[in-house]
Amino acid sequence: MTITPANGTESSDRIREVLAALVHERQELRRGQAGAALLEANRLAIVYWQQKLNAGIVAERTRGRAGG
Which of 9, 20, 34, 66 could be stapled to 38 by a disulfide with Cβ–Cβ 3.0 to 4.6 Å? Predict the structure, then answer.
């Protein structure tokens, strides 16, 4: 699976889809006894997208407070 870095316009739903795919991929990598480098790359991708999701949620809540 190839996932490109976020450009700042991904919706929370899309990021959740990406995370679900990465978690599934991790399960497959572990099942297939993938090497440490692949598992680490997958872990870093999960961390990256979790951070993007968290930042998006904070931004959405901030916008909600400012608008209401």
Answer: 34
